[in-house]
Structure formats: structure tokens, C-alpha cells
Amino acid sequence: MDKRLIIVLSIIIFSLIGIIFIVSLMFSKNESNNNVSNQEEPSSIEKVNSELFDIKNTIGNITDGYEHLYDNQDFLNSINELKALGATNIISNINPQNQTYCLSLVKDGVNLCIDNDYIGNIDVSYCSRDNITCTVPFEEEPIIEDEETSINEEGETPIKEEDEIIEEPELILKEEVKVKNTSISIYEEGGSKIVFINEKEFGPYGEVDITYNESEWGLSMNYNNKWYINTNGKAFGPYLEKPTVEFYGENIGFSYIKDNKYYVNLNGQIYGPYDDLTEFNLNEE
């Protein structure tokens, strides 16, 4: 065969190999970019709600009195994080004697507030230097003078029909688990659920579910028709639809819906959006 022909064919073959190599690199880069784009950071309002939930947990874990709340480093770190996220009009108030507190702020025009019994959005926050509550304080009930009581012939005061004895609802243990050094108990009280995490009380909630194994745990809790998630002590939420808490391999996480798309939160990292959860690949992380 003519040597010149052999040289020409060799050049053509090497050129084709080079083109194929370049194209494969381009596809590989696009695939990598797609995987990166599937990891979405939580929105700022979600981060604010998560910090508020963390503050509520921090205060609930204080054992040496609310007098030292403003010296608590976890509390101060959360306040600084709220400011970094753009929260404004941050107001807090505590009563060390009554062990009550409130904290309110504004984020993107939305009022948010937490106190001993409340966490979430609120039309008007009453947390101020004078009030330690998120909601409207109850008005004092009018004082009703006691009616004259009659005594029967036996010297006894007759019981009126309206004098019914109201019994306090009883705490009924529904589930109790221990994961490493964390003990979790779920009680039912008058149709509501109360959660104790290491003897610290949280609630009441409309619904509570727990998922766990020997080393990790996750709670889904419904509060004021919104869902909150707590995985291994880290809080997330709120969510309008109930997230699904489950294990991905050995690690607990949860999936949720936002803007008609699916997302997966695993170890605090958000993956998505997906049209279908089957698109999520554990190997992405």
C-alpha cells in the first residue's frame, strides 16, 4: 500500500479518536453540572424557621434558669444567624421568675414569633417589652360575686347540676424509644400529642410520627396545620404537606414537596428539584 495513503489514513483515525475524546469530555462535564444543579440550598425563609425552631429547642434545654439566656452561646449564634439571613425587628423578652419567654421578628414582610406555647407565622405579634407572648393576651375574666348558698336540713350544701367536676386530661404513653443517649416518649393528652426528648417537653402537636433505628431517629410533627421535622435533634420546617421521614442507606433523611417539585433533605443537604422521587440517586452525594 502506498505509504502516503497509510499516513493519510493514520491522520484521519487519530483525528476521529481525538474528536470522540473531546465529545465524551463535554458530556461528562454536562452530567457533572446537572448533578450540581440538583442540589438546592434551602430558601432563606426556611432557614429562618429552622433557626427559630433551634432557639425553641435551645431554651427548652436550659437547666440553670432563664437569667443566663442572653449569655447562652447557642442562643447568641442563632440570633446572629437570623440577622445574617435578613431578619429585622428582632424583639425578645424573658421572665426568669415565671420561666416564660417570647421572640419575634420580620422576614420578607412576614411576622414570625415563638414563645413557650407557639411557633410560626402570625398576623400581629404581641411580643414586646411589656408582653411575653406572641398572641393577644387574654382579658381578665370578670369577678362574679358568690351566690348565697343554702344549707339543707342535714347541714349539707346541696350540689347544683352546673357544679360539675372537670377532670384534667390524663397523659397516656403511646410510644417510647431510646436511640443511643436520646430517650423519646410520645404521650397523648386530650387528643393532642406531647413529646418528651430527654425529659424535655415539646408540644402539644396535632400529630406525631417517629422513625428510628439503633443509631438515628426522626420526628414529624404537625403544629397549627404545618409540619415540622426533627432529625437527630436538628429541626426543619415548616412544610405545608407532610414530609416523608425515612432511611437512605444508614442515614435518616426526609423528602418533601415544594412548588409541585420533590426535594430530599439528607444530612442537612438539599437535593432536587425532581419531578419524581425515583430520580433521586443516593450516589449523588
Describe this structure in words.
The protein is an alpha+beta fold and 285 residues long. Among the domains are: 44-121; 172-284, no CATH class. 22% of the residues lie in helices and 36% in strands. The protein is built from three helices and 16 strands. The protein has a four-stranded antiparallel sheet, covered by helices on one side. Strands 5-6-7-8 form a four-stranded antiparallel sheet, with no helix packed on it. Strands 9-10-11-12 form a four-stranded antiparallel sheet. A hairpin with a 2-residue loop joins strand 11 (226-231) and strand 12. Helix 2 runs antiparallel to helix 3 (73-84). It is elongated. It starts with a helix and ends in an 11-residue tail after the last strand. Mean pLDDT is 80; it is low at 137-149.
Concise summary:
Among the domains are: 44-121; 172-284, no CATH class.
Task: Give structural attributes.
285 residues, alpha+beta, 4-stranded antiparallel beta sheet
Structural class: alpha+beta
Low confidence ranges: 137-149
Number of helices: 3
How many beta-strand elements? 16
Could you tell me how far the N terminus lies from the C terminus, measured between alpha carbons in angstroms?
55 Å
Global Rg: 29 Å
Report the major sheet: 4 strands, antiparallel
Apparent shape = elongated
Task: Tell me the β content.
Answer: 35-45%
What is the mean pLDDT?
80
Spatial arrangement of strands, main beta sheet: 1-2-3-4
Give the topology string: H per helix, E per strand. HHHEEEEEEEEEEEEEEEE
Question: What is the helix fraction of residues, given as a range?
Answer: 10-25%
